[in-house]
Amino acid sequence: MAKKAAKETSLPLVISLVFFVLTTIAFGVMWYMQYSDQQAKDAEVEKNKKEKTAAAGEAADAALQLRCYRLLIGIPEEKDQESIASETKGKTKINDIVKKFNEQMAKSAGVEDPSKLPDYLKIWSLDDKGAAMEPPQKGFLPVIGKANDARKAAEEEAAKEAKAYQAAVAAITDNRKTMEEIKKKFEEVAAALPNKFKKDLEDATKKFDDRTKQFAATELKSREDLAKTEEEKQKAERNLMHLKTNLTELNTKVIELTKEIIKKQDTFQYDEPQGKIVRRLSDGVVEISLGSDALVRPGLTFSVLPNDYPERGRQSRMRVFRVPNDRGDYKSVERFVEKATIEVIEVLNTKLSRCRITSEFEPVRDAVGPGDLLYNSAWRKGTADHIALVGVFDINGDGTDDIEIVVRDLIKMGIPVDAYFDLKTRKWKGQIDTQTRFIIQGYSPITTGAGDARREEKAKLHSAIDDAIKSAQTNGGAQIVNFRDFFPRMGYRVKLDISPEKINQAAAPYLQGVTITEAPPMP
């Protein structure tokens, strides 16, 4: 009984042990199966990832190929060129696509390699290293379209030429018929020509003989008339020579008489006042009755004379001065003196300008005031007389020739300077013509006596100045006026009393002989 009880007691333990073992085996199998399934799932996921990556790569390659083909064909979409130009990983694929395309184009065109293709078929080129260059701006379709247009134009031109050819053939056929008709007529005329030619020859021979006889008679009479005409011609030439001699003598006398008359009369006696003083302001400033309507410009000068000057005349303004000569002795010289000289400094309006007084002879007893008249020997309202300059012009007494300054000042005033005589080259600079009214004569070098070492050179310069004046008068007939009379009458300030030493000093650079240095051109 005791053993049986012990046997019954171990059975649950065995059952429990068996259950535990079975449960352990079951859970082990279950865990193993679950782990196997997870590995299979992980492997499937990894496979799918690889397939997705491969598919994405193939899609990118396909997209790259599509962009390349769109560019090559000529139907690019937006950003195709930008995408291809910025591609880095697919450069090799792009190079291969472009290379294959060019090789196929060369094969289709029947050339050896892509480099031999015509320029219009080089859609997308490779460089020396086989890398694709910049994406093309136009593809194959535009090239085909352009070629098609050219082909249509060529066909149309060929059709026109064929039509023209047919017209030409028709014209040739017509011309051939016409030629055959002309040939027939020619044969008819050629058969009758010898008889007609013989008759015409006989008539022409007879006419020639008659004309020969007539020519001989006419020739004899012509010789007699020619001898008579020659005799009359010689007689007329002798008379003409005699008349020319008389005319030359008369012209010489006329010139001499004209010079004498000019010396005795006042060149500017018929000058008319150009305006008048309107009022006098402070600080030596006046206003005049001339403005932009008269083409007044700053720098223009006038001499001022009293309002009764036209009635009283030139003699009323003559004054006697004591002037030293080259030996220091004084002599009396009578000169024309204006009340003042003025220079335009501002044009106010069409009828008014402002001037400054540049000199005033007697500012107390004979001051400039309203109503005084304005004169300028060369300027007229809206125009001016043309002048030329010859000689030495030392206008300030410093022993220097100021001719270029004088030319500049006159042109600034609006007075045309047609020419001036260059004492260096001893030639006229500019052109004197019939418009030139006055030739203004300046100083000439002064010979100090028999002992003057440069006497011969001064004589040559004197002769050159005289010849220049004669040639100027011959070309235009201008009037010779001394600068002492001309410049004061136009209000241009110059120093009139210059010693002989200063004059010779100003002329000294021109006494070395003619130089090859050209003077500056006329402004």
What is the SS-derived class? alpha+beta
| Contiguous runs where pLDDT drops below 50 for at least 5 residues | none
Helix coverage percent of residues? 40-55%
**Proportion of residues in extended strands:** 15-25%
Compute the separation of the termini in Å.
162 Å
Tally of alpha and pi helices: 9
- What sequence of helices (H) and strands (E) makes up the elements? HHHHEEEHEEEEEEEEHEEEHEHH
Number of strand segments: 15
Mean pLDDT: 81
Radius of gyration: 58 Å
Spatial strand sequence of the major β-sheet: 1-2-7-6-3-8
Report the biggest beta sheet as strand number plus sense, adding barrel if it closes: 6 strands, antiparallel, barrel
Globally, the shape reads flat
What can you see in these coordinates?
The chain is α+β, with helices and mostly antiparallel strands and 523 residues long. The chain is built from 9 helices and 15 strands. It has helices at residues 2-73, 80-86, 91-109, 140-264, 309-312, 403-413, 455-476, 483-489, 500-507, and strands spanning 275-280, 285-288, 301-305, 318-324, 330-336, 340-349, 352-360, 373-375, 379-380, 383-384, 386-390, 417-422, 427-430, 436-441, 479-482. The chain has a 6-stranded antiparallel beta barrel with strand order 1-2-7-6-3-8. Helix 1 crosses helix 2 (80-86) and helix 1 (2-73) crosses helix 3.
